[in-house]
Design brief:
By secondary structure, the protein is an all-alpha fold. It is built from 16 helices and 2 strands. The protein has one domain: Farnesyl Diphosphate Synthase (Orthogonal Bundle). Helix content is 73%, strand content 1%. It has a two-stranded antiparallel ribbon. The radius of gyration is 20 Å and the shape is globular.
């Protein structure tokens, strides 16, 4: 029988949490000088996003009986930090489009992009430190470990660009660090603010970790097999950049004989559409679409298992189940 160690509270819906977040924070929070520093920050922060990390942080706080008002500043901190990583990632990836809009460095230049990212990191700490002080030290420990792992994941991603022998296990470690730990860490910080037990903190962290892994592999999938208008970027960009995604790694492992030779030749192809079409054809031939979808489903199911193990009434978990389902079923 499940034991409930947390008080039941009236939970906000995902839409209500999103609205509370948007009402409290806006790009006006960065109306400072010098303009050359803050205009790039306002640019990235004004581009509509899914706000998945702040929403999940607030949901996690409420799940364990905490007050969403106590979690709002930390939620904003995690969203600022997330956008900081995007600004620097786009520079490193030479990406022109982010969420359907020009990237920061494309509009303002590389130097402005680097500096904007730097100041955003500082603002992430500034807002995180506005949380109730009795939870700050524990939350900072999670935040710092999360940020370290994100940088490690980014370096692994860079290292993979020049390697043709990346394994599935190495890839999963890379996306765990680069993507999943921020989602998981956000949820643990929400639990910390609600004074959840360490055991439940780890369970909600694992829920977020597996959901984040599923989320990233779905992102990889949509980059190749999604619709550009919905995804907000050019379809096939990962193929053009030879990014070692779950799809490409498994294609390299599966392709045999002439197909393998042709695949390796395609990776050096300079005609962009020919390269995309050729790689996609080989992916389809070897069932990579199906095996990728199977992995996404496996991780999604695992995340729900961690959620079920948390010592909170099942009715309180429904909002997170619904949110996870939306993340899982998205086509953008």
């Amino acid at each position: 029988m499940e034991v409930n160690d947390h008080p039941l509270i009236m939970q906000h819906s995902a839409e209500e949490l999103f609205s509370l977040y948007e009402q409290k924070f806006s790009i006006k929070d960065f109306d400072f000088e010098p303009v050359g520093l803050y205009e790039p920050v306002k640019h990235i922060m004004s581009i509509p996003g899914k706000r998945i990390r702040p929403t999940l942080l607030m949901m996690s706080c409420e799940l364990f009986g905490g007050k969403v008002e106590d979690a709002l500043e930390a939620a904003f901190a995690m969203e600022i930090f997330h956008n900081f990583t995007l600004v620097h990632d786009d520079i490193m990836d030479k990406a022109d489009i982010r969420r359907g809009k020009p990237t920061v460095h494309k509009v303002y230049g590389i130097n402005a992009g680097i500096l904007a990212g730097d100041v955003m990191l500082s603002y992430a700490y500034k807002y995180l430190c506005k949380m109730p002080t009795r939870y700050l030290a524990e939350a900072l420990e999670v935040f710092n470990q999360t940020s370290i792992e994100i940088y490690e994941g980014q370096q692994l991603d860079v290292d993979f660009e020049t390697r043709m022998d990346v394994t599935v296990e190495e890839y999963l470690k890379m996306i765990k660090f680069k993507t999943s730990v921020l989602l998981a860490g956000s949820m643990q910080i929400g639990a910390i603010i609600a004074n959840a037990s360490k055991a439940d903190q780890l369970k909600i962290y694992q829920f977020g970790l597996d959901l984040g892994l599923s989320f990233q592999i779905k992102d990889d999938f949509l980059d190749t097999f999604g619709e550009g208008a919905k995804v907000g970027k050019r379809i096939g960009g990962d193929i053009l950049n030879n990014k070692k995604t779950f799809l490409l790694i498994n294609t390299l492992l599966a392709a045999q004989g002439e197909d393998k030779t042709h695949l390796l030749q395609l990776l050096d192809e300079t005609e962009e559409q020919k390269k995309i079409d050729g790689v996609v054809a080989i992916m389809r031939k070897y069932g990579i679409v199906e095996s990728t979808c199977d992995k996404i489903e496996e991780l999604y199911t695992s995340s729900l298992g961690h959620l079920e193990s948390i010592s909170v009434d099942n009715t309180q978990k429904e909002i997170l189940r619904v949110m996870a389902e939306k993340v899982h079923n998205r086509d953008y």
